[in-house]
Write a structure and sequence with these properties.
329 residues, mainly alpha, four-stranded mixed β-sheet, 11 helices, elongated
Length: 329
């Protein structure tokens, strides 16, 4: 079932086709009228000054033409035909919508932002100009046809207003039929590999219960997407492809951790010596070289733990000396 928008699109474009045909007919008929008027004027000038020419001087129009028998009558008749031809060319270009930028800027009533009412008025004026004079059958039929199409355009302009040209636009129709977001179909198979038994059964038409069916039946319970489903698929000859694990694109890499800032504080110069044994950890502090020599086997200060020292205070400016006993590890 087609939507009403589709019928409106085809209907407006049908009226546009009739409008272009009517304008082309008027274009060709105006040329024939102009040629006939020029021929009639030349014939009038050829018999001028004769008895026949004197009889034609009393007529309002030159015989066999639409030229008035007055001053510069032939000029205005030819200019009228040229203006009608020019108008038909402009209206045909506006019906095709080219160049749209020119019409939108310099002639907006024929642009894309206006309806069909102005177009119908112009066509009606052209047809009335042709029908206001005596003409042959071909210009007469062309003018009547253009006037009927002009009335139809004015009616459509009153109904659809400024949206008429947008509704009949082919480019707008194509852009609307396409989705806002492009759709893509993944034609790759779901399973990477199939066992040879499944392929042979598919081409030979043989049915094997051990192979299984491609269609899911309602009498069997679904195994889901877990380990049981993967195991059952492997028994049937299917190998499932697992996606490669990767970080999402929006995940930022971890920032490198900077080492803690170390603050150096001035301390008095000391000579420290650590001596370890299997009983205790001894800490000896020498204020200067003389005391270290005098206290070679003397007083020592034993401590039970020196593990939790402040990391921000520099205690040793010279490398410490470690001595271990024969029983220490």
């Amino acid at each position: 079932m087609r939507s009403p928008r589709t019928f409106i699109f085809y209907g407006l474009n049908a009226v546009r086709a009739l409008s272009i045909i009517g304008l082309l007919l008027v274009f060709s008929s105006s040329i024939t009228i102009m040629v006939k008027n020029i021929q009639a004027f030349n014939a009038f000038e050829a018999v001028k000054g004769t008895k026949e020419g004197d009889e034609m001087d009393d007529c309002d129009y030159i015989e066999g033409s639409s030229i008035p028998n007055q001053a510069a009558g032939v000029f205005w008749a030819v200019l009228s035909s040229l203006l009608i031809i020019f108008q038909t060319v402009v209206l045909i270009m506006s019906e095709f919508g080219w160049p749209s930028v020119f019409f939108d800027r310099y002639f907006p009533v024929l642009g894309a932002n206006f309806g069909l009412g102005a177009l119908g008025i112009f066509q009606a004026l052209m047809a009335a100009q042709i029908l206001s004079h005596h003409c042959d059958d071909f210009p007469l039929v062309s003018a009547f046809f253009l006037f009927s199409v002009a009335c139809l355009n004015m009616l459509l302009g009153l109904i659809f207003r400024e949206s008429a040209k947008q509704r009949r636009s082919i480019t707008a129709w194509r852009s609307d039929t396409k989705g806002i977001l492009p759709t893509s179909m993944d034609t790759r198979p779901t399973f990477v590999a199939v066992s040879p038994a499944v392929v042979s059964a598919h081409f030979t038409g043989e049915s094997d219960k051990s192979i299984g069916s491609f269609r899911s039946t309602s009498d069997k319970a679904a195994l889901g997407f877990g380990r049981q489903g993967e195991k059952a698929a492997g028994l049937k000859g299917f190998l499932l492809q697992r996606p490669v694990e990767s970080l999402p694109r929006y995940a930022s890499p971890p920032r490198p951790t900077s080492p803690p800032h170390r603050v150096d504080m001035p301390t008095p110069q000391r000579h420290v010596s650590f001596r370890t044994s299997d009983q205790s950890l001894e800490y000896v502090d020498y204020d200067d070289d003389d005391k270290r020599d005098s206290l070679d086997g003397g007083k020592r200060q034993s401590i039970s733990s020196v593990a939790s020292r402040d990391s921000q205070v520099e205690m040793v400016k010279t490398s410490p000396m470690f001595k271990s006993s024969s029983t220490a590890i």
